[in-house]
Amino acid sequence: MPELRKDPIVGRWVIISTERGNRPGNWREKHEPVDDGFCPFCPGNEDKTPAEVFAIRKHDLGPNMPDWDIRVVPNKFPALQIEGEDYRRGEGLYDLMNGVGAHEVVIETPDHGLEFSDYPEEQIVQILLAYRERMLDLKKDKRFKYILVFKNHGRAAGASLEHPHSQLIATPILPKRVVEEIEGSRLHFARKERCIFCDILHQESSSGKRTIAQNDHFVAIAPFAPRFPYECWILPSTHFSHFECMESTHYDELAAIMKTVLRKINKALTRPPYNFILHSMPVQDDIAPEYHWHLEIIPKLTRIAGFEWGSGFYINPVSPEDAARQLREADG
Amino acid sequence: MPELRKDPIVGRWVIISTERGNRPGNWREKHEPVDDGFCPFCPGNEDKTPAEVFAIRKHDLGPNMPDWDIRVVPNKFPALQIEGEDYRRGEGLYDLMNGVGAHEVVIETPDHGLEFSDYPEEQIVQILLAYRERMLDLKKDKRFKYILVFKNHGRAAGASLEHPHSQLIATPILPKRVVEEIEGSRLHFARKERCIFCDILHQESSSGKRTIAQNDHFVAIAPFAPRFPYECWILPSTHFSHFECMESTHYDELAAIMKTVLRKINKALTRPPYNFILHSMPVQDDIAPEYHWHLEIIPKLTRIAGFEWGSGFYINPVSPEDAARQLREADG
Questions:
Q1: DSSP notation for B228-263
Q2: Which residue of chain B has the CA closest to A302?
Q3: Please, which pLDDT band fits residue A23 given cuts at 50, 70 and 90?
Q4: How many CA atoms lie within 13 A of A209 on its CB side?
Q5: A3-23+37-175 falls under which CATH superfamily?
Q6: Where are chain A's structural domains?
Q7: How confident is residue B29, by pLDDT bands cut at 50, 70 and 90?
Q8: Is the CB of B157 less than 8 angstroms away from the CB of A197?
């Protein structure tokens, strides 16, 4: 059983998941990918993954048949385990709990060689709706407080399999960064009675300096104090706290702007590895006036020195105004 | 002039330092090191670095002569700039300030091919005393609130030059991680009237499960909730809030335990890249009963996915009990 442990000084929870590999060889960073030509995510290999929990398919051949467009399966090496109590306990000073949760893989396309922005917009809409579907299903389980949706594209960004996929991790605790964002937003709301993200959107659209793209319902900006070069945030231009609670038409617009921004990134930065991460209000919480969901896209261009995550102090060699200008001007 | 900018949501300061390279080619991660055989840190090349600010030398030949054992020079491409006002200002919602600070390089040895734990203990003592010397000198400048001391060893850990060196960055703000640790420690002190690190040391030495090494004045442990496999902390076994305020004899013991722990890491993990980072009370603050300085050592073994720094949520495949046992048993 994986374990969740809390750092007693700064309150950060981490997952200790030894099932994911006990010997250094299994999890240590390798510079060369092992490519034996076999892909468990390609059509025809449905029996090489755990049984699917959701799929969109062409001909309704039935579960785990090869006619799918999108397929969601449990991760074969999950960081958290679905069965078990969310039993919390102390050990002297320390706090820990059972590592219950869910860890799923969204196989985004049957086509092994594509990248997210290569998909037709309709495919991206379906992927976003698959995220929503899984979030709505997983949130019924009241043990799960947060559902992390993210994508690692490219080995340097942490992807271990090449076939295009994203991931969902449902956790019984709130990740530290989420807690910080919500606390920061509440502080602003308490002072101003306004959402800080709405305020940011207002200031950014007035100045235009850090705007990358926009459409009817979404804006893409380079944030004012980015940790990483060419970091981009996509936010709905009207207030929504929960990703999974938007109207259906919004997902069309979101797909369009994601495709545009990723195409611009690919153009300006020659198809870099990247991560995207959905930041949304915790799934069990009510609609909140103070928090605004958003998607963070982080091209992986620099080697992050341990001192940066040891100190929380980041040095960014590219100003967001420069990054936004370059991305604005790149074809999208 | 570099700029310090604050994220308005979570309050994290970042350095925007475009002087360090405007074009992607200059700062983008490269997989192959450029090795033209020339090393600006080797003896004889003293004129290839800015003039030294501190040195320990064999024959007293005078500044910037090649008879040094340890040499401290300003970074040729500093993240922060020494001249200028620490002028703070707002821009609508946002907060920013001039990027004033200092960025120095501690060249640890004239010998290009050594690693930290290869040095004789006396050399390590001298390096630690050089850190202290520079901290005591830089803290006289009241603009500087914090002095980050860290080492990136190996390219995968962020080192751009091979010749063994560590770095000091003096900053006009407190790094986020430092603020979090101090706030967490104060909370514990307010409740218990005890230092949380002293409590941790007490619990760890009773259980012994996560102890790696110890000597008269220091203990090395694997922390209870480590983000990274084989993360180690070295702490003084009696309470000290400031690294630079220890008694001289303590630096001998610290050198000994650093050498032991790094040798164990090299043995157990086949000389991995690593970072170490000094966490100490802010230099302008008084001796504090609630905070305990310590050194964090992080072997760079895994590829950290962007989602981990996007969410603050870490999955660690090795339990600290396993890591501590392996390191305890490895030759030191």
A1: STT-EEEEESS--S-GGGS-HHHHHHHHHHHHHHHH
A2: B29
A3: very low
A4: 10
A5: HIT-like (3.30.428.10)
A6: 3-23+37-175, 177-329
A7: low
A8: no
Which residues of chain A lie closer than 8 angstroms to B175, CB-CB? 311-313
Which amino acid, B210?
R
Give the span between the Cα atoms of A144 and A86, in whole angstroms: 9
CB contact under 8 A, B313 and A22: no
* pLDDT value at residue B21: 58
CB-CB under 8 Å, A8 with B311:
no
Close Cβ partners of B125 (under 8 Å, ≥ 6 residues apart): B251, B252, B255
Smallest CA–CA distance from A224 into chain B, residue = B7
Question: What is the token pair recorded at A309?
Answer: 């995550």
**A44-78: per-residue pLDDT in tens?**
999 999 999 999 999 989 999 999 999 999 998 89
Choose, out of A307, A309, A319, the residue to mutate when testing the contact with B (most B CBs < 10 Å).
A307
CATH fold of the domain at A177-329? HIT family, subunit A (3.30.428)
Angle at B69 between CA B65 and CA B70, to 5 degrees: 90
Q: CA B300 from chain center: how many Å?
A: 14
For A91, what's the count of Cα atoms within 13 Å in the CB-facing half-sphere? 17
Residues A317/A301, Cβ–Cβ less than 8 Å: no
Candidates B225, B276, B324; CA nearest to A8 is B225
Q: What is the DSSP letter of A45?
A: -
Task: Please state, in angstroms and rounded to a whole number, the distance separating the CA atoms of residues A48 and B19.
Answer: 50
Q: What is the pLDDT of residue B216?
A: 96
Query: Do the chains contact at B22 and A180, CB–CB below 8 Å?
Result: no
Summarize pLDDT for B60-108 with one digit per residue, the tens.
899 999 999 999 999 988 989 998 888 999 999 999 999 999 999 999 9
pTM over 0.90: yes
Q: Which residues of B touch A223 (CB under 8 A)?
A: 7
* ipTM value: 0.92
Task: Tell me the shortest Cα–Cα distance from A185 to chain B, in angstroms.
Answer: 6
Per-residue confidence band for A157, with pLDDT thresholds at 50, 70 and 90: confident
Cβ neighbors of B141 (< 8 A, separation 6 or more) are B102, B170
Confidence at residue A226, expressed as pLDDT on a 0 to 100 scale: 96
Nearest CA in chain B to A79: B315
Q: What angle do CA B17, B23, B28 make, to 5 degrees?
A: 85
Decide whether A3-23+37-175 matches A177-329 in CATH topology: yes
Tokens for B213, please give them. 């090494």
pLDDT at res. B23? 45
Q: Tens digits of per-residue pLDDT, A93-120?
A: 999 999 999 999 999 999 999 999 999 9
Contact between residue A72 and residue A55 where contact means Cβ atoms under 8 Å apart: yes
Reply yes or no on whether B163 is catalytic.
no
Domain range B3-22+35-176, CATH architecture: 2-Layer Sandwich (3.30)
